[in-house]
Design a protein that fits this description.
Pfam families: SQS_PSY. Keywords: Carotenoid biosynthesis, Transferase. The chain has 308 residues and is an all-alpha fold. It folds into two domains: 1-104, Farnesyl Diphosphate Synthase; 123-307, Farnesyl Diphosphate Synthase (Orthogonal Bundle). It has helices at residues 3-16, 18-24, 29-50, 63-81, 89-101, 106-119, 127-148, 154-174, 176-181, 189-195, 208-230, 238-261, 274-291. Helix 1 packs across helix 5, helix 3 (29-50) runs antiparallel to helix 7 (127-148) and helix 12 packs across helix 13 (274-291).
């Protein structure tokens, strides 16, 4: 294991996502290293596309240069799978993860396909369009993380994908205005038409009340995916289940708070306090233990199905 790659990946997660960094500490050492390295690659790709540094300083990018940056990410991913030496620490990290856990190449390429939707200004006409985006940028990350934790059974992978979908639906609800300000609208155009919000006016203050109804709709939509995801905890190692249950609680609470704030949801960024994080850490441990005795229910048929 290259210490430089681990150090780079750890720095990326400590700056890019303090919540995930805290939850990752619950993993055993091998799993934590792989999870942190996979996060570093995902964070790097996101930053390259958005012109950010570790998730900060996002600007509305030039789509032409975005295509070139995306093509480079795809090329480096292909080369990582080909076993070529990787100079970039983010791709060196990816290479170690995919070799260690046999991550199918289709997964990181699908993740990059989500960024392609951003680069090309994809228009989300229907809920299925939005869910496809959620799958690519977050559901497939859930699939890869599940493999890092040792999961291989398709039902368990389905639940991991569901958690990624729930997380991304929550993210969209929290960041509707911030995203719209840089020209990205992930809400279905059909939904916007129903409440009379023009697609180029989503960020305007006069639409906050109507926007709040759509954010609440997203939060409600995420709920069955959160419930489905909790059914997969039993099939993960206990420490991994604890980590995932903690993240589950933190993200779900963000959605609850967005819905509770209504039209004021975008006056300040919604987050969870240290006290709440501690509460979810303790609750996650209880849930992880309880999952050992959980009788798993079938996954609901009406939930979005990931591509096979």
């Amino acid at each position: 294991m290259n210490d430089q790659v681990i150090d780079h990946s750890t720095q990326a997660i400590n700056v890019g996502s303090k919540s995930f960094a805290a939850a990752a500490k619950l993993f055993d050492e091998r799993t934590r290293q792989s999870a942190v390295m996979l996060y570093a690659w995902c964070r790097h790709c996101d930053d390259v596309i958005d012109g950010q540094t570790l998730g900060h300083g996002q600007v509305e990018g030039d789509r032409n240069s975005g295509e070139a940056r995306l093509a480079e990410l795809v090329d480096l991913t292909e080369r990582a799978y080909a076993g070529e030496p990787m100079v970039d620490p983010a791709f060196a990290a990816l290479q170690q993860v995919i070799q260690r856990h046999r991550i199918p190449k289709a997964h990181p390429l699908e993740h990059l396909a989500g960024f392609r939707m951003d680069v090309r200004g994809y228009r989300y006409q229907t809920l299925d369009d939005t869910l496809l985006y959620c799958y690519r940028v977050a559901g497939v990350v859930g699939l890869m993380m599940a493999r890092v934790m040792g999961a291989e059974a398709e039902p368990t992978l389905d639940r991991a994908c569901d958690l990624g979908l729930a997380f991304q639906l929550t993210n969209i609800a929290r960041d509707i205005v911030e995203d719209a300000q840089i020209g990205r609208v992930y809400l279905p155009a059909e939904w916007l038409a129903e409440v009379g919000i023009p697609e180029d006016e989503v960020a305007l203050p006069q639409h906050r009340a109507a926007l709040a109804t759509l954010a609440a709709r997203l939060v409600d939509l995420a709920e069955p995916y959160y419930r489905s995801a909790s059914q997969g905890l039993r099939d993960l190692p206990l420490r991994s289940a604890w980590s995932i249950a903690t993240a589950h609680g933190v993200y779900r609470q963000i959605g609850v708070e967005v819905k509770a704030r209504g039209a004021a949801a975008w006056d300040a960024r919604v987050s969870t306090s240290k006290g709440q994080k501690l509460q979810f850490l303790l609750g996650g441990g209880v849930l992880a233990l309880a999952s050992r005795r959980m009788q798993v229910r079938p996954r609901p048929d009406d939930l979005w199905r990931r591509p096979r």
